[in-house]
Design brief:
alpha+beta, single chain, 152 residues, three-stranded antiparallel beta sheet
Length: 152
């Protein structure tokens, strides 16, 4: 896929089938349809794993949660020893990272009691870290795993 990521792309296991391409998700341990959003998710998660020091066991992908009596699915979650560390939301490049996208991620983060959120469309990215007193810091890059666990 021709998306200008903020880092060199990682090599993914891809297979072509008559119904379309699939990528092997090492986190869910299965083949999934290779959409643009999935490509962005896989690239960022591999970058976190191989370049930013995130343990593979700390990355949960596409799990369900209950939100206002509805079942929703988050894109990815970084899990700590006793808490959730960061919610990640991935969008296609043509999706503008606006207030609605941030509100969606914030709603999921609130349900999970997560104080940091990462949102990207592959081109733009925002890392929002909420302090215990409710103040929010915004960054335009992903923190390393060590930086994340020491800032929460």
């Amino acid at each position: 896929m021709n998306i200008l990521l903020p880092f060199p792309p990682h090599t993914l296991r891809v297979r072509s089938l008559p119904k379309g391409d699939e990528v092997f998700d090492i986190f869910r341990k299965k083949w999934v349809r290779l959409t643009t959003e999935e490509y962005i998710r896989q690239q960022f998660l591999h970058h976190m794993l191989y370049c930013l020091g995130y343990p593979q066991t700390s990355i949960a992908v596409e799990k369900t949660i209950q939100y206002h009596k509805m079942i929703k699915r988050f894109d990815a979650l970084i899990v700590g020893k006793n808490n959730y560390l960061m919610l990640l939301e991935f969008k296609r490049p043509e999706i503008v990272l606006n207030e609605n996208v941030i509100l969606q991620a914030s709603a999921y983060a609130h349900v999970l009691a997560v104080r940091s959120i990462f949102v990207t469309n592959g081109i733009q990215q925002f890392f929002l870290a909420y302090s215990k007193d409710g103040n929010c810091q915004i960054y335009h890059h992903l923190p390393s795993y060590d930086d994340l666990i020491h800032s929460i």
